[in-house]
Specification:
The complex is a heterodimer. Chain A has eleven helices and no strands. By secondary structure, chain A is mostly helical. In chain A, helix 8 packs across helix 11. The longest helix of chain A is centred in the C-terminal third of the chain and has 22 residues. The mean pLDDT of chain A is 89. By secondary structure, chain B is mostly helical. In chain B, helix 1 packs across helix 2 and helix 1 runs parallel beside helix 3. Classes of the chains: A mainly alpha, B mainly alpha. Chains A and B meet through helix 4, helix 7, helix 8 and helix 11 of A and helix 1 and helix 3 of B.
């Protein structure tokens, strides 16, 4: 095995974790990562070494994930019980006012300048329930637009907005719990 | 039916989040602005959403190894 092949193989577990988080299906994730590694080993000369190997591989992986979504997007159910949970009911009282007012998160740079913040955000994204997680990552990680996401998953625009709304609310609650709520004690990650 | 200009916090929250994924209409934007002037809680939520919006591209970069 060449050094290049060894370096690619060493990154396989991380690629698999990303693929699972996106597809929420182990078999499809394995396929996407397998295709990525094959493509990388087939033309190592395409990796000019100007960027990190990981960045280059993740770029290939994203294309392979989109291929998997095109192939299987309509096989996945577009709701689960967890996705249906009424988060609004927890946040608002009967007269539609906040039960507990949102906290002041302060200067964005204080959080965004810290690596630990992104580790927490990563955990929060991976904890999103199946459909919300898939859709949110298609939007914010794969950077697909709404029309594309709707087409690949067979969703209406309204379905998509509801899912993204719930995903963003969950992320807000998760960041509050795991990061900003701990700000007074120095944001232990 | 005309769209109401005075919204409750639940509806405002929904509009703030909708604004991340579609362009809000004129009446929606005016209603949001009106509510933000009389509410102490929703502007905080709106700032939280803005922080998350700033965070996502950087999360992408962190995740993909560019950072």
């Amino acid at each position: 095995m060449t050094d290049f092949a060894r370096a690619v193989e060493a990154l396989r577990p991380q690629l698999l974790r990303f693929a699972r988080a996106q597809l929420r299906n182990d078999a499809w994730a394995e396929d996407a990562v397998g295709d990525t590694v094959l493509a990388a080993l087939a033309k190592p000369q395409a990796f000019a070494g100007q960027s990190q190997l990981k960045t280059w591989l993740v770029g290939i992986l994203k294309h392979k994930l989109i291929d998997q979504i095109r192939r299987h997007g309509r096989e996945v159910s577009t709701t689960t019980d967890e996705d249906e949970e009424d988060l609004d009911g927890l946040l608002f009282n009967a007269s539609d006012h906040w039960r507990t007012a949102p906290a002041e998160w302060g200067d964005p740079e204080a959080a965004l300048g810290r690596r630990e913040f992104f580790e927490v955000l990563e955990v929060c994204v991976e904890k999103l329930p199946g459909v919300q997680g898939r859709v949110f990552m298609m939007r914010e990680w794969l950077e697909l637009d709404s029309a594309e996401i709707c087409k690949e998953l067979g969703l209406t625009a309204t379905n998509l907005w509801v899912l993204l709304h719930r995903a963003r609310l969950r992320l807000q609650a998760c960041l509050q719990e795991r990061w900003f709520g701990k700000a007074a004690t120095g944001n232990p990650a | 039916m005309s769209k109401p200009l005075f919204l409750n916090c639940r509806k405002v929250t929904a509009l703030v989040l909708a604004g991340e994924d579609r362009r809000l209409g004129f009446v929606e934007r005016v209603a949001l602005r009106l509510h933000m002037q009389i509410c102490a809680a929703c502007p905080k939520f709106s700032r939280q959403v803005a922080l998350m919006r700033q965070a996502f591209p950087r999360w992408r970069a962190y995740r993909d190894g560019a950072e």
